[in-house]
From TrEMBL:
Catalysed transformations (reactions): L-lysine + NADPH + O2 = N(6)-hydroxy-L-lysine + NADP(+) + H2O
Coiled coil: none
PANTHER family noted in UniProt: L-ORNITHINE N(5)-MONOOXYGENASE, MONOOXYGENASE
Keyword Oxidoreductase attached: yes
The entry's keywords: FAD, Flavoprotein, Monooxygenase, NADP, Oxidoreductase
InterPro entries registered for this protein in UniProt: FAD/NAD-bd_sf, Lys/Orn_oxygenase
GO MF terms held by the record: L-lysine 6-monooxygenase (NADPH) activity
Name of this chain's protein: L-lysine N6-monooxygenase MbtG
Pfam families cross-referenced by the UniProt entry: Lys_Orn_oxgnase
Species: Exiguobacterium oxidotolerans
Length: 415
């Protein structure tokens, strides 16, 4: 009998495992991938994290943990160079190496195992897992389950199926660079990074590039000091108890904090655009106010767009399309049988301790580290916030305070 079984091993549940490690809790985590990997398709050279290295898997809960980013640096003999580097933001590749380093040290992580069912037995859960290589199935019993299955790529149905989602970019880059014209759809950080990467590639001088955005301006990520306080336990606690309609409205107000482009990426793009020769300028187009309605494919792609303000149809022909069109929560099918209460289209009801609300009262819990935007606001996907979330979950599972949670640590008062 386990205390907690986790479904999915992304950074959220990996952090949970790292924090559970020194506690007496019996935990086990499953992931269908062969080994730990974090967004491999977006490991673009020079891409940076948007959150400080202090928001590693454990520091905000326990800076003395052996799984801190600083301890990782020491293990690879890089601590002094990092001290002279003097930066809070690290590269995405280095953060990924850190996550892998943590994953190799935890013995409660099982890879190549897909969770295919969870059944409530009345006083516990039976978790059915399948070995993705051999097809062998096994059942595990646990008092509590945490769902951390992350999100999956979202591409509109009206786009041809050969359009590439940005999560495949690195794997498809060589193939893309053999084309004459590439179009990128979307206006968030991923679209900007791909545009910059192609703009600065060796093929750039003779490559035609088109960047299509629905919005009028390319929003900058909110990096203002007080503005960032919405990524704090205080704001998340406040947000969680608001009425549904107020939360729905609030979520839509935070696009800059969630989907904005980092100032450094925008600066780098502008500098490269500024340096283009007149010839090259004709080959690079940044097109705003265009909602892509349909993408078809024959010998090339045909993009049909509508101008959001002039209501006119525009078309473009291109050789390849990268859709940086976002994600939707990856919800396992078996949750249908668990009497979960939903409050939005796909959003489950989740309480302040990250327990998923079920229509039957139980003393064994289902927790979520994913699909939390409507219940916990814009910080749902934020790596720093995931640490305090993991503290609350472990305290709740243990029935006592294993980690003390820092509350009211912001200057702004929200309630
Ligand atoms: C390119 C990119 C950069 C980002 N950078 C930052 C950043 O700098 N700072 C920040 O705060 N946030 C960032 N984010 C947001 C967020 O941190 C990430 O999306 C993060 O990966 C979310 O972690 P997760 O654990 O919820 O899910 P995921 O990383 O998506 O992991 C979910 C895992 O569940 C597994 N799984 C799913 N279903 C099953 C099943 N049935 N059985 C077994 N396994 C299953 C999947 O294989 C997957 O490994 C970034 C997001 C992206 C896309």
């Amino acid at each position: 009998m386990y205390d907690l079984i986790g479904i999915g091993i992304g950074p959220m549940n990996l952090g949970l495992s790292a924090l559970a490690h020194p506690t007496p809790l019996r935990t086990l985590f499953f992931d269908e991938s062969e080994q730990f990997s974090w967004h491999p398709g977006m490991m673009i050279k020079d891409s940076m994290m948007q959150t400080s290295f202090i928001s590693d898997l454990v520091t905000l809960a326990d800076p003395t943990s052996s799984f801190t980013y600083l301890n990782y640096l020491r293990s690879i003999n890089r601590l002094h160079t990092f001290y002279f580097y003097e930066k809070l933001l690290i590269s995405r590749q280095e953060y990924n190496s850190y996550l892998k380093w943590v994953a190799t040290q935890l013995d409660d992580l099982c890879f190549s195992t897909r969770v295919i069912d969870v059944q409530d037995t009345g006083d516990s859960y039976e978790v059915l897992v399948e070995d993705v290589k051999t097809g062998e199935r096994k059942t595990y019993e646990t008092r509590n389950v945490v769902i951390g299955t992350g999100a999956k790529p979202s591409i509109p149905d009206t786009f041809d199926s050969s359009v590439i989602h940005n999560t495949q970019y690195v794997m498809e880059k060589e193939q893309l660079l053999s084309k004459n014209k590439i179009s990128i759809v979307g206006s968030g950080q991923s679209a900007a990074e791909i545009f910059l990467d192609l703009l600065t590639s060796d093929r750039s001088p003779d490559l035609e590039l088109e960047w299509i955005s629905r919005s009028t301006i390319f929003e900058t990520l909110e990096t203002g000091k007080l503005g960032e306080e919405i990524f704090s336990p205080s704001y998340v606690t406040y947000f969680n108890q608001l009425p549904l309609e107020t939360r729905q409205e609030a979520v839509s107000k935070f696009t800059r904090s969630q989907n904005g482009i980092s100032p450094e990426t925008l600066q780098a793009i502008y500098e490269h655009l500024y340096d283009l020769t007149t010839d090259q300028k004709d080959r690079v187009q940044i097109r705003a106010n265009l909602e892509v309605e349909q993408i078809t494919h024959d010998t090339s792609f045909a993009i049909k767009m509508r101008h959001t303000e002039l209501n006119q149809v525009r078309t473009s022909n291109t050789d390849a399309v990268v859709a940086a069109t976002g994600f939707v929560p990856a919800l396992p099918r078996f949750i249908d049988r668990l009497n979960i209460e939903f409050e939005g289209d796909q959003a489950w009801k989740v309480d302040a301790n990250y327990r998923i609300v079920r229509s039957i009262a139980t003393d064994h819990q289902l927790y979520a580290t994913t699909n939390l935007e409507l219940s916990h606001g814009p910080a749902a996907d934020n790596l720093g916030m995931s640490v305090s979330r993991n503290q609350l979950i472990l305290n709740d599972v243990a029935g006592k305070e294993l980690y003390s949670v820092e509350q009211h640590a912001t200057f702004t008062t929200f309630d």
